[in-house]
Amino acid sequence: MTSQSPANALDLSSYWMPFTANRRFKREPRLLVAAEGMHYTTADDRRILDGAAGLWCVNAGHGRREIVQAVERQLSTLDYAPSFNMGHPIAFEFAEKLAAMAPGGGRLDRVFFTNSGSESVDTALKIALAYHRATGQASRTRLIGRERGYHGVGFGGLSVGGLGYNRRAFTSLPGVDHLRHTHDPARNAFSRGLPEHGAELADDLERLVVLHGADTIAAVIVEPVAGSTGALLPPKGYLQRLREIATRHGILLIFDEVITGFGRLGTPFATDYFGVTPDIVTTAKGLTNGTIPMGAVFASSSIYDALMQGDESQIEFFHGYTYSGHPAACAAGLATLDIYKRENLLTRGATLATGWSDAMHTLRDCPHVVDIRAAGLIAGIELAPRDGAVGARGQEVFAECYRRGVLVRVTGDVIALSPPLIIEEGQIGQIVETLRAAIALVK
Q: 16 falls in which pLDDT band (50, 70, 90)?
């Protein structure tokens, strides 16, 4: 059985699919068998325009030969090497290249490799706890997330995350609290750019300081742009205000840039887009163009140096993964960075952002559309939920777009868009017109 096998020739029963209604999918599977540039090819030989960069990760487009060749060379030379008390050159080379372009104008220049966004988040939270313990503030153990935030599926990320369905299904860590979310459609619906209202919601951190005591709070983690809850943009001044409050109380600020990292907003990182530098940044997805699972956590040298104390023969940070800094993943990452640099992809979104936003806002008069949000090459088209069936309308639009040859992302009743950064203006038009037709069909 090969990747080109028709759907009716496959036994779909063994694979327990993630974040999927398994029974429904296996009755009507959607199988992708090849990809190149901006398009997937389906098992029934149709071309599907990728309006979601896979899962927010294929920033340079599909089928990049440079990445394939780099991985092939690496596997034929050194397929695997441990990173515990051992090293291999390509991991150090990749970390150096990342440090040179690090968030905050290069200030977050210490890089810890993981294998996914979920692992990056859990790593960042552990770094924050370890930092406070190393600096004599062991009482700082509380972690603060935000409602409607998504930080992966590890128990740490799940706990600071603020998605009800995710949290209710599993036990969360103790000692976690949440800021209120910033989504305010009553005041901000159909905003062009960042919403005008809501900067004061950052003051929720002050409320939690009063409630718990600043000396108990280790870190607050937010997505600069909340992706998995439907492209929620921060109000003007919100992130700056959150930075000021965290600094005042000695609380580390973590930006989860698993989605916004590597060009999604038209800047290398959201820290550059918003002009706000946190203490730690989590990344993954676009790091290797989605080719090999990998993540990275960026931290400041001051955080790193705080842990580099005591007996040099002792492990300073008891944390890591078997595949941290995997040679093939590093090779894929280096090739990806070369593509980003050569084709100016980390800033290309800025040249398309106005046209992208204008195109999205032409959907304002479509049935059921209650809000449209866009920044860089991200957009969220929010639909009114159907009575008693939240998410049904969004799923139907998703399915109709796929039938019409465009892949979009759906989260509840929000259609989320994040195409590869190589998208052309005509393809933006195709996405919008496909959405227009699909929304018109849904009751």
A: very high
